[in-house]
């Protein structure tokens, strides 16, 4: 199944396809122009892309086995013929040159429309997610090598649900196991979301309260806390003080220019045992947001949203979600580390009017990922 590149819209409405003029054959593959100028197909044709994919996947079996190189989440580029002397000896020089010429043309042309090309099936699905203690599970980092696939649903029913909808997080599997619920608090100076492990109990003083998400006045900076005590009420050694689990920063758009949202996510670092380093600031001046502002990044990890690619065919910005996101939305995003753009720490996107997929990986936990998603729903005065 081909992964889909889903538009990450700039204005919240689905971008309409943009008509483009056809290019002459060979314009998009100069490296092969001298030998295949007449056969280089028109890159603006989506029908051509589909036929190329079919042709590529139906290549002789010997061409599709062997070494592969990971280039992205669920994406593989066939590297058969490099370093595989036994296989190359079986083919004549003419066959080999013809194959690589064909592959190069396909790579250049399809990349302009889909960004990445699936030559193989997606990697095997993650093992089933099982746990005995819900509270422990939602606060523990995801197991390394495992993608936790979830679904977020938004409930607007009721007298005030239009302004204060409830959000639910479930595992995206056959059992649809409930994980978390969140709702924006009323009568709060700034946006404040309560997060609970019980969908029927969203009170601050309830025993199911697991954490909260709090924003600044502009709705551009958010902090995620666990359910422990405020520093003013904690013990002198701060052992029972609340931890800051994450900070989310949406870069302001003071010029009013349209474009994809840009966000920074700060999370506590991990120790040698794969456990989260506790961050218990005594005041806001020692919190994650101030540390990031002062570039005091000891024991912290800085993540950013992956920059979408502009697609001429759809006249929109696109990201490759491997089929997990199906509708264009300004809320669609992927979170990566600057040093490894191919490792998707988290991705979130729309699949229906009030349904979204949320996938997260190590070192994030469910509470962190859910809170990051909740921040994307909140109104942002200076970012739209």
TrEMBL record:
One of its GO terms (cellular component) is cytoplasm. Its main location: cytoplasm. It is found in: Cytoplasm. Coiled coil: none annotated. InterPro entries: Tubby-like_C (IPR025659), Tubby_C (IPR000007), Tubby_C_CS (IPR018066). Residues 139-378 form the Tubby C-terminal domain. One of its GO terms (biological process) is protein localization to cilium. Residues 76-93 have a biased composition (Basic and acidic residues). Residues 1-42, 63-93 are annotated as: Disordered. Residues 31-42 have a biased composition (Polar residues). Gene3D superfamilies: Tubby Protein, Chain A (3.20.90.10). It comes from the Eukaryota. GO terms for molecular function: actin filament binding. Keywords: Cytoplasm. PANTHER family: TUBBY-RELATED, TUBBY-RELATED PROTEIN 1. Belongs to the TUB family. This is Tubby-related protein 1-like. It comes from Sinocyclocheilus rhinocerous.
